Amino acid sequence: MAVFNVFDLFLYTFPMTTNTPLLTDLYQLTMAAGYWKSGKAEQEAVFHLFFRKLPFAGGYAIAAGLGDVVRWLEGFRFGQEELEYLATLPGRDGRPLFEKGFLDYLGTMKWQCNVEAIPEGTVVFPHEPLLRIQGPLIQAQLVETALLNIVNFQTLIATKAARVCLAAQGEPVLEFGLRRAQGPDGAVMASRAAFIGGCASTSNVLAGMRHGIPVRGTHAHSWVMSFDTELEAFATYAEAMPNNCVFLVDTYDTLEGVRHAVEIGQRLRREGHELAGIRLDSGDLAWLSIEARRILDEAGFPKATIVASNDLDEHLIESLKHQGAAINVWGVGTKLVTGGEQAALGGVYKLGAIRDENGEWQPKIKLSEQAIKVSNPGIQQVRRFTLNGEFRGDAIYDEESGCTVPTEIMHPADPTRVKAMPEGTVHEDLLRPVFRQGVLVGEQPTLQEIQARCQEQLTHLHATVKRLQHPHEYPAGVERTLAERKLAMMVEAKGKVGATA
């Protein structure tokens, strides 16, 4: 009964919130207890958050989620309710899993790590650290799961949105996936990330309130069905919302619905208002949009927009464009906010270096039988090279040893593939300070500024990198000095394993 009461109190005290350090996997806390018990809790360490493979078989990804990471880290503290809950957890012998001394330690813990991050809206590539966390080992470990949860999802959705918006060729994309999203938090995060990727608006009113995203929406099929006739439904809606008339025309007969929209549009015009447009939600969208455009134009409504929906994604939009569809606005829901064919971004969080008792940094490496899973050692930074306004390559390098000039970039999975940066390139380092010893530094950009950065970034990528099918591979890899150190560490580590065996 006591366990139930404490857990029930926790749920009551934190209704629908994820701004708590308990947004984590249990093994983060068991490792933390081990660090505390062994005296390693305060040892300085560096972790990197990155992904190994581009989503959607695409040529780039869009970094997103940092704004929510900042908010979560600012609230990183163990309160009384969390500590009381952790005290109820049993070990396999039925005794308390966590010692009281460890829980007391957590209760006094204050966030004090340095955080470097690639700004949201930046185009990014495999193995590049999106976040770098430096500070006490226990703290850097405890934040792993939440950071991955936030960054993986929002980077996935922002990337999907960018692909959809590029397929729409500058025409507005409306995100309206709330009802199909992965729960309330997922829905709001998806709306935020979709806006970063380029969506013009959302149907999600809560996301609009929280993030300042424009909200759009008119009526559903149920509105039309609740009246005796479609014409009556349109007329009544026009009386109630004369400045928001985009009529859903496919409840019964689509083209007849367009003609009814025209009739009500003429009434609106006589009363000093305009028909904003129509929405097509089923059928042959290419043919129906062309016919609807003809009806609207002949009736004197050339500015009325045609909005299309119905399980759209970037591939279907691209196809409809090729078919000459007369669509002005694209409503994308399920396949945008869920990632569609890509269930998740495979982001990971790996230890890169740890400071020894002499104050020296010791690089760390994780081995694997799969080359792509061997981690990069050291304190990593990403250097981007640009020539004549075009991004030419990214080099991951170790800040302790620096980046050689001229720079050679080695493919992360194939050291025989080397790309030398040409003369005349300019460069910038992408990881920038966000927290210094736990204190937020600098001004945080608005969501509109982040979206603008995304759009600007995409203009610097070659068109072949942005194509949907079989994109050109952008040169992103490990700087030669770091690659050579990595290889030497791999050989040394495997030698130790062999000697032990």
- What overall geometry do the principal axes of the alpha carbons give? globular
Per DSSP E runs of 2 or more residues, the count of β-strands stands at 21
Distance between the termini: 50 Å
User: In which range does the helix fraction lie?
Assistant: 40-55%
Task: Round the mean pLDDT to the nearest integer and report it.
Answer: 94
* Oligomeric assembly: single chain
Q: What is the class of the domain at 158-337 in the CATH system? A: Alpha Beta
CATH superfamily caption of the domain at 158-337:
Aldolase class I
What is the CATH third-level topology name of the domain at 158-337? TIM Barrel
Number of helical elements: 18
Q: Measured on Cα atoms, how large is the radius of gyration?
A: 27 Å
Within the largest sheet, what's the order of strands?
13-12-1-5-3-19-20
Assigned CATH architecture of the domain at 158-337: Alpha-Beta Barrel
Low-confidence stretches: 1-16
